[in-house]
Structures are given as structure tokens and as C-alpha cells.
């Protein structure tokens, strides 16, 4: 993966919010001008600020239409500026508009993944015996390759279950909901070791491995890949969750009943085969489990 692309994407989002701020200043400046058109230009400036801020928000969410809208906005802004009698004030927002056009074109239609495609993972057989190693890219493009992953069910002090919405820059199931925290087992690492590491990386939770309860392992066949899901359970104590924005867009705690209702809601997009994780929760009756 080219590490410059995620940085360029984030820089583009930041620039868009800066431009939105400039349009707010533009609108405020017109309110203090002695002109019959001051309210007209003030409203237009505020409208432009709201539009570009919304485009930035939805582009960051991975919405394709926002990419097109941003390009059109930048082109129109540049065109209207250069066809008018330009002064220093016009140049002040022409320059960032040109920069926005170039940067938006470079990041293309979708946010670039922040997941390391050359990361080495295990390749295992159907009995989880090691066959060798593969890259993340290879594992995600060949369903005949079985890889290892971990999932940790997180329960709060009220026994609610943590669900997370994956970020727009995930290489699979971007902007989809999942249950708990977790990730791939890197080559040379163990399941439990990875579970502890993922909790720290994704939500800044430091745990003792002995506090993770083993809930079993299943082999899951997805449309483009195959994985062993090793599952654990962890009850939060006084932990403060701090989600990593490159991994997680939103978090929410729900009851087991609420989770079941969400899973059958067609409007909620879920990571593939997530109902298998729900079945594990039901089987282990997590809501009545001890906190040990």
C-alpha cells in the first residue's frame, strides 16, 4: 500500500473543512459591507460553507456521490472566480479551490484503504494446521485460502454488547457494522496474543490475557475469502474506549435482543456472516455469564 494515499485523503477532508470555514468568513464579511447585495452574498457564502462541509462529511463516509459533488463544486468555484473581475479576495479562495480540485481527483472515487495489503498472514487448512504464509491482499482475493482472525465480544457493566461500524477505509466491508473488536492474526503470532493487541489498537483497551474468555472457533466461508474466527469475551471494568478512527467509524452498546432486531433490519448493513457471531453469543448465554 502506498502510505501517501491515506494521508492525501485525510488532507483533502481537512482542506474541505478549511474552505468551508473560509466561506463562513466570506458570508460574515459581506454583512458588514455597505451594499444592497450584502444579504444575497452572505446567504450564498453560508450556503457554500454548508455544502462543502456536508461533502467532506459524506466523502469521509465513503459516499461516491460526494466525490463527484466535490469535483463539480471545485470546478464551478474556479470557473465563476476566473470569469469575474478578480481581486485579492477572489484569489484567496481560488487557490484552495484549485488545490481541492487536484487533490480530490488524485484520491479518486473511493477512500484508499489504510489496511496494509502486504501484511503477512497464516494460510491454514480446514483443521487450522499451518500451510504457510500469504499476504493480506492474497487472502482477500482467494476463497480457497483460509486465514486466521480473532473476534472479541465486549460487554459493558450493564451486559450490553459492543457493536462497531467499520471505517470507510477498511479493505473489506467498509461502512458495515460488526460485533465486537478483532482482526487478522499476523504470521508468527498467536490467537490470544492478537486478541490483546487488537483491543489496544482498535479501542485503546489494555487487558490481561487471563481476562479473555475463550468462546470457541469456527470456520467461515465468505464470498471472497475464508477465515477461522477465534472468539473471546471480555467484560469492561473501568476501561474507557477510545476508537481508532482508521478502524472504527462508530460504536454502540446494545442488548442481545436489540442486536437480534438489528440483524433482521434490511436497512442496517452488516459484515458478512455476522449472524454466526450472534449465534455464538446465544449459545454461550453471554448476558448471564460471570464477569470473571
TrEMBL record:
Pfam families listed in its UniProt record: NUDIX
Gene Ontology MF annotations: catalytic activity
Key words, A-Z: Membrane, Transmembrane, Transmembrane helix
Membrane keyword on record: yes
Coiled coil stretches, renumbered: none
Keyword Ion transport: no
Residues spanning the membrane: 12-32, 38-58, 65-82, 88-107
Domain Nudix hydrolase span(s) in chain numbering: 145-276
Protein name: Nudix hydrolase domain-containing protein
Amino acid at each position: 500500500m502506498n502510505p501517501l494515499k491515506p494521508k492525501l485523503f485525510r488532507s483533502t477532508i481537512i482542506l474541505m473543512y478549511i474552505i468551508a470555514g473560509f466561506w463562513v468568513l466570506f458570508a460574515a464579511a459581506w454583512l458588514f459591507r455597505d451594499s444592497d447585495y450584502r444579504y444575497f452574498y452572505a446567504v450564498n457564502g453560508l450556503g457554500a460553507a454548508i455544502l462543502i462541509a456536508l461533502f467532506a462529511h459524506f466523502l469521509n463516509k465513503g459516499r461516491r456521490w460526494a466525490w463527484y459533488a466535490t469535483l463539480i463544486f471545485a470546478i464551478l468555484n474556479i470557473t465563476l472566480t476566473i470569469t469575474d473581475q478578480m481581486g485579492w479576495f477572489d484569489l484567496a479562495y481560488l487557490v484552495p479551490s484549485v488545490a481541492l480540485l487536484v487533490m480530490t481527483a488524485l484520491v479518486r472515487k473511493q477512500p484508499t484503504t489504510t489496511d496494509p495489503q502486504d501484511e503477512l498472514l497464516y494460510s491454514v487448512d480446514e483443521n487450522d494446521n499451518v500451510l504457510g504464509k500469504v499476504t493480506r491482499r492474497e487472502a482477500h482475493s482467494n476463497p480457497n485460502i483460509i486465514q486466521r482472525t480473532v473476534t472479541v465480544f465486549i460487554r459493558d457493566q450493564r451486559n450490553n454488547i459492543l457493536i462497531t461500524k467499520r471505517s470507510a477505509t477498511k479493505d473489506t466491508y467498509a461502512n458495515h457494522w460488526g460485533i465486537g473488536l478483532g482482526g487478522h492474526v499476523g504470521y508468527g503470532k498467536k490467537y490470544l496474543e492478537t486478541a490483546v493487541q487488537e483491543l489496544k489498537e482498535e479501542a485503546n483497551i489494555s487487558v490481561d490475557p487471563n481476562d479473555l474468555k475463550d468462546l470457541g472457533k469456527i470456520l467461515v466461508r465468505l464470498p471472497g475469502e475464508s477465515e477461522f474466527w477465534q472468539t473471546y469475551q471480555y467484560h469492561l471494568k473501568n476501561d474507557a474506549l477510545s476508537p481508532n478512527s482508521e478502524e472504527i467509524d462508530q460504536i454502540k452498546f446494545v442488548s442481545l435482543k436489540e442486536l437480534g432486531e438489528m440483524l433482521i433490519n434490511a436497512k442496517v448493513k452488516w459484515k458478512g456472516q455476522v449472524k454466526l457471531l450472534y449465534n455464538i453469543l446465544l449459545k454461550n448465554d453471554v448476558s448471564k455469564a460471570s464477569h470473571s
